[in-house]
Amino acid sequence: MDTLRTSLCDLLGIEYPILQSGMGGVAGPELVAEVSRAGGLGILAGLRLNAEQLRQGIARVRQLTDRPFGVNLWLHTQLLPPVDPAALPAATVQQVQGTLNRFRETLGIPAESGRPAAVPDLINEAFEVILEERVPVWSIGLGNPGRDMVARCLERGIKIVAMVATVDDARAVAAAGVDAVIAQGSEAGGHRSTWVKPASREMAQIGAMALVPQIVDAVDVPVIASGGLADGRGLVAALALGAVGVLLGTRFVATRESGAAEFWKKALLERGSEATTVTDAFTGLYARALRSAFTEEYAASGAPVLPALLQSGAAQDIFAASTKQQNPEYVPMWSGQSVGLIHDLPGAAEVVETMVREARRALRALNERVRLG
Ligand SMILES: Cc1cc2nc3c(=O)[nH]c(=O)nc-3n(C[C@H](O)[C@H](O)[C@H](O)COP(=O)(O)O)c2cc1C
């Protein structure tokens, strides 16, 4: 295929400046290897995997491809270490379970009243695996690695990309020494990439069109655009804003190799950009997902939410029952506003190949449409 190279390709050793987000529960070794095989950068989701599981995932990617790939970890302050469920106020737990019990009743599963189980403390052991395995790229969501973690990667030749949602956070991770910054626009599917939970859901919500050029101006390292991008036109637009590449999540959820449930993929094909909402009711942290009975009824209940991943821990039985019943209303289906651009269910390699073709076409079309005098 024709080339479409930027400085990011040289930095990460890839053909095309297209990254696939390391999405928990979605980005397993098959998806990652397909993206990397096609010349992009596949990123394995490391969230909630223990050392052995992560090691196995990395080994499987290496069996499938010899191209560079990444591993993603969250570094959220509420997870380093995870909040102790014993410290949760009893009244809060009661209110949360009260609302969740309505969903349990709808799904026909037993009511609960207790505290959720503790969130396993896995981030540090996962980081050690990344170091030992000398993973080519460490991708960070919801966190700032700080100079010490950066130095340990540098010693082993591991490149670091860190995702941020504000200009201040971009400056902070750049100062820590990361190799590239991912600017996450508010259109993005999944969690808002901040390491402290914002005071309200309106905060840290800047569209990619405004955020990307500001971060390009603010830092000296390469910038990767993310949020709302799903095709070659988006890639060209991101390059025009000063980015050297793109990171896509939602587009790769709707691929054959993604680990998402079939009803989730189907919903992405059927629904438009107005179908998403930002909620903290699924996990305790703000994230963009398809609107559903869960998001709407939880918000209407006025119940508080538990800290990071304790909220999802409390609702785990609901998510499992909803999935088992193929009922999309009570399980998170993360999605960005790019959902309205997604109309097919291709292989992941095809997504990369199509984007490159479309981007080249968009560049040519731009050249014809715009006459510079
Ligand atoms: C299903 C899904 C899961 C995600 N999981 C993660 C994750 O585990 N770690 C992370 O850093 N970002 C995660 N993200 C966010 C992406 O890194 C990225 O910001 C976003 O997908 C870009 O916007 P887009 O979905 O419009 O392409 C996830 C996104 C989606 C859609």
Task: Describe the model.
Helix 2 packs across helix 15. The relative contact order is 0.16. Helix content is 42%, strand content 13%. The chain is an alpha/beta fold and 373 residues long. The chain has a domain of 218 residues: Alpha-Beta Barrel (TIM Barrel), CATH 3.20.20. It starts with 6 loop residues before the first helix and ends with a helix. The protein has an eight-stranded parallel barrel, surrounded by seven helices. It has a three-stranded antiparallel sheet with strand order 7-11-10, with no helix packed on it. The longest helix has 22 residues. It is built from 15 helices and eleven strands. Bound molecules: flavin mononucleotide (FMN). Flavin mononucleotide binds next to strand 3, strand 9 and helix 10.
What is the compact description of this entry?
This protein has helices at residues 7-12, 29-37, 51-64, 90-107, 123-132, 146-155, 167-176, 208-218, 232-240, 250-253, 262-270, 293-301, 310-314, 316-324, 348-369; strands spanning 18-20, 41-45, 69-74, 137-141, 159-164, 180-184, 190-191, 223-226, 245-248, 276-279, 287-290.
Shape: globular
Instruction: Say which molecules are bound, naming each kind only once.
Output: flavin mononucleotide
Main-sheet strand order equals 1-2-3-4-5-6-8-9
CATH class of the domain at 7-82 and 120-261: Alpha Beta
Question: What key phrases describe this protein's structure?
Answer:
373 residues; alpha/beta; TIM Barrel; 8-stranded parallel β-barrel; 15 helices; 42% helix; 13% strand; globular; binds flavin mononucleotide
